[in-house]
Amino acid sequence: MKRLLFCSVMLAVACSKRTDDTLAFLLERPTPVYLFTMPEASDVERFRLRSEIVRRVDAARHEIVFWFYGLDDPQIMDALKRAADRGIQLTLTGSSDQNYEGLEKRGLPYRLRAKTGLQHAKLMLIDRTILISGTGNFTRSGMMYNNNLFFISRIPEAVATTILNSLEFEEQGDMPISWQDNGALFRMMIAPLHGRTIQSELVQSILHGRSVRVMIFSFTDAVMATAMLVAARNGTHVAAIIESESRDGLSPKDMLHEAYGAAGSSPFFLYADGNERVYYAEDGAKHGGKQHHKTMIVDDRILTGSFNYSLSARDSNLETFFEIRDPQALPLFHAEFERLQALSQPVARPPYNSAPFTEGLTYENGRLCMPERQVQLMRGHGAFFRGLLFRDANCAPSSASAGFQSSAEFDPGATGVLSSGRALVDYREAEVSESLPEPMTDGLLPLPFYCDGPHCDPCSAGLCRGVTLDRVSLSGGWLRRTIESPVRRLLLLHRSGLEEAEIIEQNGSFLRFKAQATSSALLFFYTEDQQGNGQIEIACAARTPPAALKRILLALLWFYPSRFPAPVPCTTPDESL
């Protein structure tokens, strides 16, 4: 029997109307459940979403762990109070910029995330078996007046524990988290630790998708905006519905609008959300009327969660991000997009291309420079994708850059000197979305091994693997591997960039190389077997890898789960012992 899908308040789209008796079997029906708010629907239909969440809370037997940003719905808070009164263990975590007066009035203790940025995750775990999450806040406006997604999935207890630990101890997240639920495959990441991997996944999904549909509340990511333009120019159908206080409220100066204006006749379509359903609080403040989704539909995948397309979501907020592969859910998400599209208004644009992004690009002192305008360079794939944004007179990559440039300090190719062969990144041969004079028409290769095209990715071709070092001394210039295959080249990624280390001596598993003035690095070994087949082996030398290196290591897990079923272990250098 096919798994039933219930669309909550989207009854007119995916389900026939039923009486309230429908809710009686929801607790027993198969998951996952996808619930879309529908602000323009009747009150009866809109209340179904809240009723579903309340019933799940009332059914809790042991524990509820709840991470929220907005929480003011009285029925949900009453359900939490009933749970506490019957002895259910509650752990409630909110954001320091929000008011939780309703919890205080009910005597429910809560805590606030004590870090820079918002506690923006929206996730409830019940008895470590039921997960409720999505794009919406647990508020009156979030569930009844804004356009949002909520979903419910049954998960294994071990997965629930991993999620809890990843939220509780943000710097120690074990990623990616994955589970299956009745044929649906879920994968999950948590920002900010994996914010750059999430950004890279979103950008690459746009660049390589055949069809891209976006429903988003906040969109300020310049790399993603340019990716939408590049994809549309390459023939991908790109459509986005974005929140706007009014239908003419999109700023013509923001990056999304600039990229959209440059699309000309390309299949790039931007819509201002038309949700006008609002209510006014006792203090006169207006609530609701928002396009609050953070959802992208790319071919057969759904990318959603609390993650807005912004640098604050990437770098500082606590956020959740889900990849969902569920053939039975796709029609529901497409129906939601089309419902919102019908209520939205197309944003006007000129029928011709505006000025190219690459006007004024120069090459100075080993760096591409764009003092007048900003430029995007996109190259590579997977964990080795780089979407570089240059937009200042110092010719330096902007912090908005995506992918395998985790920070200015760990900018591969920026300052490292390679003794031979191609660099990890060769800015002098960078490809951009517009034509450039020679020698800037070919290159920006992400690795010097087996890479010869714009979407080079050695790991996706099965040419890389993680290895463990037995012992290593970076300052002493030696290491001992656990295997004895000959090493042809050795590259180190550290705070000074990517540097090729001269190999001085090899004897079995022992390797002597030019000493390095660093205490932590990723090591890329180029090896060959007896048949001459090449392999890239990736190792880590660090007592505790800096966040920038850890992000790269964990990106390997996300993009190549079959090649990296477990994290690459880090060996503490002898000088750090």
Task: Give keywords.
single chain; Endonuclease, Chain A; phospholipase D; PLD_domain; 577 residues; Immunoglobulin-like; 27% strand; globular; seven-stranded mixed beta sheet; 21% helix; 3 domains; alpha+beta; lipid metabolism
| Protein structure class | alpha+beta
So how many helices?
A: 12
Would you identify the CATH architecture of the largest domain?
Answer: 2-Layer Sandwich
The helix fraction, in percent, is 10-25%
The first-level CATH class name of the largest domain: Alpha Beta
Portion of residues in beta strands equals 25-35%
CATH topology of the largest domain: Endonuclease, Chain A
What is the overall silhouette?
A: globular
Question: Overall pLDDT, averaged?
Answer: 80
| Strand order in the largest sheet | 8-9-17-16-15-10-11-12-18
Instruction: Write down the domain tally.
Output: 3
What is the distance, rounded to the nearest whole angstrom, between the alpha carbons of the first and last residues? 59 Å
Largest sheet: 9 strands, mixed
Q: What value does the Rg take, in angstroms?
A: 25 Å
- How many beta-strand runs? 33
| CATH homologous superfamily annotation of the largest domain | Endonuclease Chain A
Residue ranges: pLDDT <50 for 5 or more in a row? 1-27, 355-368, 406-450
EC number: 3.1.4.4
GO molecular function: phospholipase D activity; RNA endonuclease activity producing 5'-phosphomonoesters, hydrolytic mechanism
Keywords: Hydrolase, Lipid degradation, Lipid metabolism
InterPro entries: PLD-like_dom, PLD_domain, PLipase_D/transphosphatidylase
